[in-house]
Amino acid sequence: MSLSKRYELLLSALLLACGAMPIMAEPENVLAEHFDTSDGRLPAGWRVEQGVWREADGQLFVDALDGEARITFGKADWRDYEIEATVTFDKVRDDLRWVAIVFRADPSGGMPYSQFPIRFKCDRSGGVEFAVRLGAGEWSVRGVGKVSEDCRLGHPRKLRVVVRGANVEGYIDGRLEVDSAYCLDRNAGLLGLAASGCVARFDDVSVRLLPPSPAGAEKELQPCEVVGHRGFSAVAPENTLASAIKAIESGATGSECDVYAAKDGTLVLMHDESVDRTTNGRGKITELTSAELKKLDAGSWKDPKYAGESVPTLAEVLARQKDSGCIPVVEIKMEGIAGKVVEAIRAAGMIDQAAVISFSAEAVKDVRALEPRLPCAWLCGKELTGTPSQRAEWIAEQARACGTNLVDLNYQMLSEEMIAELNKRGITVWTWTVDDPVVMEALMRWGVASITTDRPDMAVALQRRAAGRDRQKQ
Questions:
Q1: Residues 258-297: pLDDT tens digits?
Q2: Would you please indicate which residues are annotated as catalytic (active-site) residues?
Q3: Per DSSP, what are the bridge partners of residue 132?
């Protein structure tokens, strides 16, 4: 035994005798692969799951130009670890193709498994991701980032992933790009590499096992409000009466809608500034009258059975949802219409049956000043840095400046600790837009007050399960 090791053991024993914590062992290096064998064969224990892989010239080559490829290695009981790899694109089918580090993979080669990919063009949101492969062609993207410098052919990039419990950190060239609390599908598993639509090289793959993360007590599932995103937009055309009705029928406690003012001042439902994406017309909403908007077909793009569905006014949606048990959650999409929105809700006699949300701090301030009885949440989806406490304090300051204690945050900003820090500051947390039941369940356990989703049916099922458990306790 080396002198340094003896010293460490002796010091640990002395600290224990004094009631202090022992020195934590250094992370254990369990793999360092440089692909420098002379026979060109894959390393022992590495298994090709998909695609063409070969070792040559001291690197691992993959040809996934016409599809996807994946290779796995390691042990199924590895839980917390850090994995690094150098990756180089040699050829790409298009700018969105990617290479990735795989983790928490099923030993059988099946799904789900998690991965941290970098796209060839990575200087936009989603250029890097934390994503879970749920099935053939089915992904749950739970964290996104972007890198300041796009990839280039023949130019190596360094990928690093740190997995501790349910937390994932993804780094590119030493810079943290993705930080997520949603590695929830599997608590251990194999590691691997993957590629899509490209020819690429991997080198210098290393793995360090980290000290086990402490296992906290799992919180019970708590009921929360369920808000259909633009109605029940997974099945019906968004921001239409049909979509709002489907949300009501799903059992959702709320149905969100987006509101602009038409040229004649009438408040109408539309998410985008123009009608181009969701109707058969063209032009900006503010340059079209409500009569012109009524002539448009806002349903056929979703499904022929919704042909003829019109662009509704806010007044029409409020009337349909009144006393339905499913409140309208009105998102103000443009400046200067907060007063009109409040008046529309008052005119419908629904001050106690509605809520308002907006990314605009000014709109939130106006609503709170005009009608303090009306719940109004400040929307935010920023990529924040700092500790959960620091991020929560910044959000709380913005909310207080708007005169509200409600925030509606992109779920990718949240963690159990973040929600607790916001609640500690008297802030109630709503979140958007969550379509993955695994993430929904985690958020309900962590204590969010409301979840906005394209799939209110899924969230309502969890809500009812949670309420049923509560009844059993009484």
A1: 999 999 999 999 999 999 999 999 999 999 999 999 999 9
A2: 229, 271
A3: 114, 140
